[in-house]
Amino acid sequence: MITEFAVTVVYTQIVVFDPGIPQTELEWSEDHVAQGFTWMPGNVAFGAPDHDGSCLLQVDTAQELQVNP
Questions:
Q1: Which of 2, 8, 35, 38 is the most buried (most CB within 10 A)?
Q2: Residues paired with residue 2 on neighbouring β-strands, in sequence order
Q3: Buried b (16+ CB within 10 A) or exposed e, 3-36
Q4: Which residues of 1-69 form beta strands (DSSP E)?
Q5: Sheet of 37-40, strand order
Q6: Do residues 1 and 51 make contact, with C-beta atoms less than 8 angstroms apart?
Q7: Could you tell me the CA-to-CA distances from 31 to 17, 28, 58 in Å, in that order?
Q8: Is the sign of the CA dihedral 20, 67, 59, 28 positive or negative?
Q9: 10 Å Cβ neighbour count for 47?
Q10: pTM over cut 0.70
Q11: pLDDT for 12-66, tens place per residue?
């Protein structure tokens, strides 16, 4: 199912996190920048267009997680 909502982009990243886990600032290495995201358990940040302001975000959700190696 795809859900669509408006978000505000600050410093060219969108952060998704589990509010039940204490948050630590994510570090971006050159490899992370090249792949477009960085993560740690319970926290992920995605690179966004190179501007601040409003964007439209589409999220595809699933009942089951399938990891692609």
A1: 38
A2: 60
A3: eeeeeebeeeebeeeeeeeeeeebeeeeeeeeee
A4: 2-9, 13-17, 37-40, 43-47, 53-60
A5: 13-17, 43-47, 37-40
A6: no
A7: 21, 8, 24
A8: positive
A9: 17
A10: no
A11: 888 888 888 887 788 899 999 999 999 998 889 988 876 666 777 777 777 887 7
Extract the tokens encoding 67.
Answer: 């990891």
Q: Are the CB atoms for 48 and 13 separated by under 8 Å? A: yes
List alpha helices for 1-69, DSSP H.
30-35
Q: How much is the pLDDT for 51?
A: 63
Written as six digits, the tokens of 25 are: 């600032």
Query: Tokens for 60?
Result: 């595809």
